Structure of Heparan-sulfate 6-O-sulfotransferase:
Amino acid sequence: MEDRSHKVLLALVMLFLFAVIVLQYVCPGTECQLLRLRALSPAAAAADPYRAEDETPARFTPARFVPRFNFSADDLLRRVDFNIKGDDLIVFLHIQKTGGTTFGRHLVRNIQLEQPCECRAGQKKCTCHRPGKRETWLFSRFSTGWSCGLHADWTELTNCVPSVVDSKKEVRLRPSR
């Protein structure tokens, strides 16, 4: 009888370990396990979804949260004319984790222009020349590559872009900046 109870106990322990392994495989993070435990608790229905992980109350609730921007309505509604045939240049500053890769691809692939960028299948970099000229109107990783380094910030771009753009033009054709 004792031998049979040991086998049942061993089978239950093995079943428990198997269940834990499967759970870790299906839901590897601790967040998933915590959500399951919270869902079983009676306080889960009344829990504050804006409560911080360390259980301190959130500073702002949706009713009191007021977004603040450093832009005036005039700044947001202003119109900027871009002359693709002239010397205007768009410099795309890619800020990581803000959708910049998608937006950068959109600039070279989807914008309807007099002469859109030419993108060849299998290549990440597209050619964005001005109509009738062999110079680019867009400075981004999808048009000029990593000319100023990987994830160049504002300071790096303001120091690098003029020299890169000017190096590709003859001295007499360089625009005044």
